[in-house]
Amino acid sequence: METLELIIAPLRDGLYTIMMPVSNFIWSYILVYLLLGAGLLFTIMTKGMQFRLFRHMAHVTFTARGAGDGISGFQAFATSMAARVGTGNLAGVALALWIGGPGAIFWMWVIAILGMATGFAESILGQIYKIRDSNGDFINVEELDSQLNVLYSNYSSGENSIIRRYAGLPDGPITFTDMTDDLFDASPTAMKASPRTSELLVGTENGKVLKVSGTMPFLVWSDISNAGFLGSVSDIEFGETDNDIFVTFHNYGVQNVWYSNDGGTSWLAKEGDFPDIPVKAILQNPLNSKEVIIGTDLGVWKTKDFSVDSPEWTQSYNGMNSVKVTDLDLRDDNMVFAATYGRGVFSGQFTGATASVEDVLSGNNAFTMYPTVSKGDFTLQAKSSLGLTKMSVFSISGKQVYTKEIDFTLNGKQQVSLNLNTGLYIVNVIDENNKKSSLKIVIE
User: Fold this and answer.
1) Could you tell me the CATH number of the domain that includes residue 403?
2) Cα-flanking dihedrals φ and ψ of residue 290, to 5°?
3) Structure confidence at residue 263 (pLDDT)
4) Domain match, 106 and 223 both
5) Looking at the structure, do residues 362 and 384 belong to the same domain, yes or no?
6) 62 to each of 7, 83, 116, how far by Cα in Å?
């Protein structure tokens, strides 16, 4: 702790030296005059409402309302007081008297009287611009079109399916328009704006995929769904072009992965050998169009060739294990972010390279192992030419904790079980020619 204090103390003192003059200047020369000026301005604009309406204020505060008319005036007053009065209002008065003497009370009264006009203006503006309704969902579906600076938001209510379109982001003025159509007969569960055009794809809870094209207010809605679409749409993504569309469903007993290469005119089921698991999200590798990953109830899965009729899917743990993945997102630098249920956000990066197993088989890497995060059971894979090897496992401190001889001439895949404490370990493999390679594993 003493070492930590020696490190933190200079930083703390340096920040204090910088921030205190700034804080004193703001509180002494800016904030006081700003509060006085704003209160005086609002007093003039409201024609002295704190004096003119004082009697009316007392009347509505203590007059009871009928049932169903909302909260009473006194309840509103008490709520406002609870939000405004704190420890500073009590201790601050005593401190002001101690420092400034009795004259401080006079100036507190002046600030309070002028502040009544500021509080009145604040409350009135809040009432004017508030939106009070039950539209949308608690966890709401939204989509940002960063090309047009437009935000699309689910605004459905009851049987009314609505998308609210907010334009004018980020500098304003912000305007909104409600989008609806006869084809749009269920709440949206997924939306995707094209990165190239003004096109918007909308997936609904009754399994429809709708395409919205054109410009406001002349929008054209079209249904590009397939008869095989069953359940709620979980995700929609564009591929290399606007004609390449990926759609997923989170349901059991149905085809959960679909693809169209003609803008939704025809669809191909791409579930292949994927287990009967709900799919939450999908992304195509922008550097290798054949590689596609999906987020599922059992982690991230990938295929190295999405173009075939029946893709082969394998789990892609990358430290995640079989946690539910609720969303996948792609950044401009090809970083992939996977949002999970209960274990935070994981990240990785798309590359143009193939999977590590293929690197081994092509000779780029001596060996590979998977999963890299496990309870201690993993598979070691290498080419048979690696021959008789010695595998050693070291703790992060450098202590050897396991060793074993493995003959890859007999089997290119070797199962290894380790009974080790939780932590990070280094696996070294030395072949017959004394060539050494190493990888990291995590024992949970």
Assistant:
1) 2.60.40.1930
2) -80, -20
3) 93
4) no
5) yes
6) 58, 19, 19
> Per-residue pLDDT averaged across 109-116, rounded?
87
Place of tokens 């295929």: 303
Same-domain pairing of 335 and 377 = no
Give the single-character DSSP code of 256.
-
What does the pLDDT look like over 265-284, one tens digit per residue? 999 999 999 988 899 999 99
Handedness of CA 24, 30, 36, 39 (dihedral sign): negative
- One domain for residues 344 and 366: no
**Residues forming a β-bridge with 259:** 246, 268
**Residue 358 scores a pLDDT above 60:** no
Longest CA span, the chain? 97
Residues 151 and 124 in one domain: no
Q: How many helices (H) and strands (E) does the chain have?
A: 8, 27
Question: Which distant-in-sequence residues (6+ apart) come within 8 Å of 228 by Cβ?
Answer: 254, 255, 258, 267, 269
| 343 token code pair | 């274990």
In angstroms, rounded to a whole number, what is the distance separating the alpha carbons of residues 292 and 304?
A: 7
Residues 150 and 242 in one domain: yes
Backbone angles phi, psi at 247, to 5 degrees: -135, 135
Structural domain for 68, as ranges:
10-129
Query: Which amino acid is residue 334, in one-letter code?
Result: N
354 pLDDT above the threshold of 60: no
Would residue 186 count as lying in a domain? yes
User: What is the structure's pLDDT at 356?
Assistant: 41
Boundary residue ending a domain (78, 100, 129): 129
* Beta carbons within 10 angstroms of residue 345's beta carbon: 10
Phi, psi of 237 (to 5 degrees): -140, 145
Contact 294, 336 (CB under 8 A): no
Q: How many domains does the chain have?
A: 3
Phi/psi at 178 (nearest 5 deg)?
-90, 130
Look at phi and psi of residue 121 and say left if phi exceeds 0, alpha if psi is from -120 to 50, else beta.
alpha
Residues 377 and 417: beta-carbon distance below 8 Å: yes
Position 137 in a domain: no
pLDDT in tens, 128-142: 777 666 777 778 999
- Tell how far CA 198 is from the center of its chain: 23
